[in-house]
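Person: Show me a sequence?

Helper:
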Amino acid sequence: MRKILLLPAFMAIYFTALAQAHEATIRFDGKDRPGVILNIPYPPDVVENAINEKFGKEGYKGNNSHGWTVYRNVKLKSLGDDALDVYVKIERKSRQEKDVSEVSIIVARGYSNFVESGSDVLKSSGVFVANVEPLAASMNLEMEIRAQDEILKKSQKKLNDLVSDSLDLDRKKKHLEDGLVENSKKQGEQRDDIIKQQAILDQLKARRKN
């Protein structure tokens, strides 16, 4: 009974992933090959990291070859019993959709023995890659959090600098105000001295003989 209940849920997941992918003729190494193309709504660098991690968790590391990432001798239950070479290419979908990745997939059973159009292996490979979307979403979120954290740190630093400048200006202002008070006091003393010296001068002049 449990297996019967799980089957609809599994099929729903399967067809949801499959709906994101479609078969297409893909140009590879100067020849047209049957493959799968799907769109994943995250930037290419995020999707690339997610796909690498997904294959990595299964024990496979990709190698770059002429713009493609190749995962060789892949044996996964979801892809069948054969050892497969899975070729993946990730590109920005368009200038207008720079945060959407177009993922191209072709599969071979060894060198140049590419699987035929309509094969279950090709469809399953599309589903396997499409299922990286939740991982890509998580990675993209973490990337956005780190980016926003950097923006916040820069904003906080700018505020700290402004507060520091304000304190410095306050110190300069107090120094100027103290200087103005001292200057005003000295002006008063100087005026008193001028009056005193003028009186002495007047006395001296008064002693002149006519």
User: Anything to note?
Assistant: Strands lie at 21-28, 31-40, 63-65, 68-74, 84-92, 101-108.
